[in-house]
Amino acid sequence: LEQALPEATGGFLPDDSGSVLAAKAFSDAFSETEKSNATLIVEVGKSLTAADLTFDGTNKLLGTGIFVDAATGIFKNVDVRNVRNGSNGGTAIAADNGSYLEIQNSAISNYDRRGVSLYNSRGAVYTTTITGPGALGGSAVTYGLQVAGNTFMPVNVVGSAISGNQSATGTSEQSAGLFTFQDGGSPRVNV
User: Fold this and answer.
1) Confidence band for 87, pLDDT divided at 50, 70 and 90
2) DSSP string, 22-75
3) Adjacency order of strands within the sheet including 143-149
4) Which segments within 57-141 are labelled E, that is strand?
5) CA dist 148 to 36, 70, 77, Å?
6) CA–CA distances in Å: residue 2 to residues 24, 28, 136
7) Do 143 and 111 form a contact (C-beta atoms < 8 A)?
8) Helix-then-strand count for the chain, H and E
9) Most buried among 2, 21, 28, 146, using CB within 10 Å?
10) Of 176, 35, 165, 148, nearest to 111 (Cα)?
């Protein structure tokens, strides 16, 4: 069962390397990886700058809104909202596999797992507001900014606000505005 893509408006500014932003529809059967669930993908080895972009996943089941895979993604003045898959797994923007992710002057809101996730990647979040959905039902937890992996790559956070990430009542897991964990390395966040 194919779903229509979420509404996305604004400008994509490719650099000299011929950047690619791939949009795809997906079935309602989600795989375990964020990449296969992503709606907009910056492909391996590419570089993309997107400016003045609104990504709204209202009434869609989304694993990940924007995924940067072994690539460079720079997002300026973007509004990414309502990235949810109904089972506490929606991530607004994710980067993996040694990517560089930079988010500037942006707003990210109403996700049901992570606002921004950097795994084995480096990046920066400047003057950005990340607002979680508040407490969700069941055992749901949310993270505004998650930095993880077996890496020593730094992530810089400057002039940004993270709020609205609350654990569900009665769950033993904890939500967090900034969540780091290591997977054989030591993620570094400079605030």
Assistant:
1) confident
2) EE----S---SSHHHHEEEEE-TT-EEEEEEEEEE-TT---SEEEEEESSEEEE
3) 21-23, 38-42, 64-69, 91-96, 114-119, 143-149, 176-182
4) 64-69, 72-76, 79-81, 91-96, 100-104, 107-109, 114-119, 122-126, 129-131
5) 19, 15, 25
6) 10, 7, 27
7) no
8) 1, 18
9) 146
10) 165
CA distance 125 to 117: 11
Residue 148's Cα: distance from chain center in Å? 13
**SS3 of residue 83 by DSSP:** coil
pLDDT at 25 over 60: no
Q: Are 62 and 39 in contact (CB under 8 A)?
A: yes
Give dist(CA 36, CA 154) in Å, integer: 26
| Rounded-to-integer distance, Cα 175 and Cα 142, Å | 5
* The token pair that represents 94 in the structure block: 């994710």
The backbone torsions φ and ψ at residue 150, rounded to the nearest 5 degrees and listed phi first, read -100, 60
Global pTM reads: 0.82
Residues counted in the chain: 191
User: Which tokens go with 71?
Assistant: 């690539």
What is the phi/psi pair of residue 162, to 5°?
-125, 125
**Amino acid (1-letter code) at residue 19:** S
pLDDT of residue 185: 65
Q: What is the pLDDT at residue 151?
A: 63
